Amino acid sequence: MMKWDRLLARGRFGDTPGFIATQAARSEFEVDYDRIIFSAPFRNLQDKTQVFPLPEQAFVHTRLTHSLEVSSVGRSLGKAAGTFLLEKYPNLEKTGISSSEIGSIVAAAALTHDIGNPPFGHAGEEAISDFFKFHPSGKVWESHVRPEQWIDLCNFEGNAQGFRMLVSKQFGLKLTYATLAAFTKYPRPSMISHRDVARRSQKKFGFFINQLADFEQLCSFLGIDQSSEECWYRHPLAFLVEAADDICYSIIDLEDGCTMGLVDFDTTVKLLAPILKEKFDPEKLKNRSQAQNLGALRALAIGELIEETVEAFIQYEESMCKGNFDKALTDIIPSAKALQLISEISVQKIYRSKIVLEKEAAGFQVLEGLFSVFGQALYHQFYQTEQFSGQDKSILRLLPEDFPLKGWGAEVNPYPLLRSLIDFISGMTDKYALNLYRRVKGISFPGV
User: Fold this and answer.
1) Per residue in 389-399, pLDDT tens?
2) Which stretches make up the HD domain (predicted)?
3) Is the domain of 54 the same as that of 91?
4) Predicted TM-score (pTM) of this structure
C-alpha cells in the first residue's frame, strides 16, 4: 500500500540524492508552479489549439487559458483533499506538509497537463503518428530502430511528450517527484504485452521507452508500486489532476461552443441544469446578457463538480493507495450522466463542426509536410548520402542550433535523433508551424 508521507515527499528530480533545497518564502511545490509558469514550453501554449485551431475570437480558449483554468480547479480539489488527508492521517503534520501545499502539487501538475501537446491539438498527435505509420519518408526509419522504439514513434502521445519535457535537462525545470507523479495519468510505456481495459491508467501511455529509467526512479523515490510487470499504479493525486481537466473541458468547451453559435443557449442551459440542481434558478437568467449568464452558469457548475469530486476522492482514497481504484472520478460522481450528455453533444456540434474539421485537416497537411521535409533531409544525410542534396542542406540549417546533427550513421540507432526532430516540430505553436510550412514549401517568403 502506498503511503502519503512518501507520496508527498519534497525531493526534486535531477537533484543530488538526499538534497532538499530550502525556500524562505515559498514551498517546494509553489516553486514547481513558478518554474512552469516562466518556462518556454508553457508560454508556447498561448498559441496552441484547445478546440478551435487558430482562433480569431479573443474569447475562445487556447491551451494556455485552458491550462490556467484547469490549474485553478486543480488547486481547489487538492486543497480540499489535503484538508481531509491531514485530518485522517495526523502523522502527516510531522512532515510539515499543509493542505495548501497539497493543493499546490495538484495545481502545478494540472498546469502542465497539456504541455506536451503538438500544434493543432489531437489532430496534431494523429498527424505525427501517421507520418511514421504511412508516409514513405517516415516508414523508412522502421528498420533502423528497435520494435519498442517504433511503437513510440507510430503512436505519438502528448502525455508522454509532456513527461519527456518535464524531466529534460534542456528546460532545467527539476520539478518535485510528487508533481511529476501527479502529472502522470498513464504510468506505463507504449509497448506492453497486455493492457487491462478495466484500468483507466492503462488507457494510454505516459512515457516513452527512453524515459523508462526516469519513471522507475520517480516511483522508487515515492514508493509507488507496480500493478504488473510493465505498469505502475497512479499517484492518487493524479486522479484529481485528471478530474480538473475533465471538469474544465466539459463545461468550458460547451461555453465556447455556445459563444461560437454551435450550441444554442437554451440547449446549453438544459445541459447544465442537472449539474446545478437546486442552485439553478431560471429567474436569475432574466435581464442579463448571454455572456453574463454563461459565465454565471459555468461558475456554478464547476463549483458543484468540485464538491462532488472531492467527495468521491474521500470515499476512494484508501482504495487508490492500495491500487484497487482505477477509474476517472468524474465517471462516478452524481453528475456523471450529465457530463456524459454534454460530451456527446460537444462531439456532435463542437468537435465535429465544420470550422474545427476544416482547420484540423489543414493541420494534418502542415505537420505531414514539415516532417516529410525534415525527415527526408536527415535520412539522406545519414542513410542515403548519394541523394543528400543542396535542398536538404538548406532545410537542415533551419533546425535549432542545439539539434544533434553529429554522430549518426548506418550503424547507430537513430531513435534519439528522431525524438529530437519530434521535440522540434511538436513544440511549435500553431502559427509558427503554419508559417514554416509555407516557407519550406515555397508557398510564401519571409517578409513578403
Assistant:
1) 999 999 999 99
2) 63-250
3) yes
4) 0.92
